[in-house]
């Protein structure tokens, strides 16, 4: 396909993407995701992009990125080149953050993880129940929304690290209507009501890394013209935040397909530390790409 053909096709053809973070070796769960993306793209005459989600510059390494590409190539995943690397697009995420800043929807957040934890424990020792997000993490306290401009400036000048968080209440009232997304996956299907408020004041720019998962994934899906997001059910609820950001930034929403997860040997979610389900380990044992397909049930 020439670049011209691709551009013409790209206008109408569905666009899929597989978007791993190279902070460990790929495992069977990634294989399911990548194979589903490839199969769906093929059946729908679509394109398949590979996006390396490496905003966490301390955990993601070039060696692991090479390993990701090696595993996907071995599996026979036909992704387009060049591959997009998030670490090469920080200015684009910064621009999106700046737009949200100009809309008065984000604020600098200074509390460390330890400070939040201590606050939550003290509250719960007194018998209170601190609200938690869909992943079970305590919501960030909201008082920094109210800091005066002078106090904000003073803190920015004197405290080393800060994150930028979305003022969820303001963002929702600006949008002013319920948000939904189209879902075709293995859980609930159809038009799903998004509940971004369940996540509280999500972080959009981390204190220890540029950007954040939510901001970079939303900006990139739009920048790459992604029409179909196929990923694990562990990200089902996070879609609410992505829908909200799309609405605030005026971006088109893709269709979402959240697929079943592959449980680890102990029945829990697979993680990158579970070496025995790493594709590289299975390959070394003599498994073939079709064995992997069978192992993930497709
Ligand atoms: N980078 C994310 C992960 O490896 C996936 C992001 C997505 O598919 O939206 O879990």
TrEMBL record:
InterPro entries reported in the protein's UniProt record: aa-tRNA-synth_I_CS, Glu/Gln-tRNA-synth, Glu/Gln-tRNA-synth_Ib_cat-dom, GluQ/Sye, Rossmann-like_a/b/a_fold
GO biological process, one term: glutamyl-tRNA aminoacylation
GO molecular function, one term: glutamate-tRNA ligase activity
EC numbers for this chain: 6.1.1.-
Gene3D superfamilies to which the protein is assigned, alphabetical: HUPs (3.40.50.620)
Family that this chain belongs to: Belongs to the class-I aminoacyl-tRNA synthetase family.
Protein name: Glutamyl-Q tRNA(Asp) synthetase
Organism: Rhizobium rosettiformans
Upper classification of the organism: Bacteria, Pseudomonadati, Pseudomonadota, Alphaproteobacteria, Hyphomicrobiales
